[in-house]
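Fold this complex.
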Amino acid sequence: MPQSPLLARSLAAVWHPCTQMKQHEQLPLVPIVRGEGAWLVDADGRRLLDGISSWWVNLFGHCNPRINAALRDQLERLEHVMLAGFTHEPVVELSERLAALTGHRLGHAFYASDGASATEIALKMSAHYWRNLGRPGKNRFVSLAGSYHGETVGALAVTDVSIFRDAYAPLVRAGALVPSPDARLAQPGESAADVARRAAAVLEAHLAAHHDETAALIVEPLVQGASGMVMYDPDYLRLARALCDRYEVLLVADEIAVGCGRTGTFFACEQAGIWPDLLCLSKGISGGYLPLSLVLATDAVYAAFYDDATARGFLHSHSYTGNPLACRAALATLAIFDEDDVLTANRTRAEMLGEAMRARFADHPAVRHLRRRGMIAAFDVADARPDFARRFFAAGLDYGVLLRPLGDTVYFMPPYVVGEDEIGHLADGAAAALAAALR
Ligand SMILES: *Cc1c(COP(=O)(O)O)cnc(C)c1O
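Structure:
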């Protein structure tokens, strides 16, 4: 297939993520030159509606004027300074604002640059917490079947997506897996809450037997993203919180994908009325502008590290920890939540999204388990061919939508700036892409 010079240069010099590069012999790369709100514009002037928020990071559109202005202002003051031994206004203000969003239950923010590093921090912090309390044997982790917490060697210990993990299994000290409370597993007559109770019973048995060696349980609250937008009942989080308390195991909420309002509340955990001991954030927190991640910790966790002995401190570090530009982008993002009362506006927006999907897909013969939680909607496709996701993606591009199924699961995770017309375009594009991919 003939390719433009930029695409040929990209294929020669750039090793693209999450990609078997040889497939680009058939599927051309898409060169993006501009972003405008929920839209991306390619080199030919073609407009694509970003239905997955550019890998779930964008919240308020591309080239958002308010975030741009904040970054311009910060650029003229301070681009970066190391955070060990130094501090600056953006990182302090962001930490205070995040603490306030948790009602000051998680008042200590530790920074990194990407989601997997936040997972690493939460795992290391959990094990080190127990070590500092004189219980070094508590150094194993528990995660849910189908969990995704990132792809570094440490994070793979709690990630259960075989395509990302199998090749590296010999490198990984795998944690224990307990069943997912996946609502799709409901037997006839069972509710999603029943499935949650069933899954929690297995978690209880595991913790009863293994609490002496378990540092933490890590979960993606309400929606397991990468394994296919698996949704579950908040009861599971309530039960998990109680079990973690009873068996002295830390609860880590990985809100990297579901935080920042994605499921309807600012933190997904709020819908269960619980707080974790450690909470990971990344993706949307910088509005989709700059790599930024962080772990919020309770006073109790923080206190276990506060000591005269250097080695009892949490000595983990990344070069760009607390980068001022990324923190300013995050502050501008949080300001938009307040100024525009985004969580309230998103209730209507999310219902429109659900309605648009119901109208096109509820009675579609190939569609199973149409579901939605806040600004995430998804359905599974029955009897999809092995190359379904790629065919769907390519057909979506032809229609002017960016949608990228996870295996047989089609999902929608648009920025919080889409209006009714754009939601309609997304749904129509999905219907056209589904027809083309099933053909
Ligand atoms: C994306 C994601 C991660 C990893 O974040 P990266 O920035 O891609 O390393 C971890 N956990 C969850 C739930 C995610 O969705």
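Residues 157 and 178 are 13 Å apart (CA to CA).
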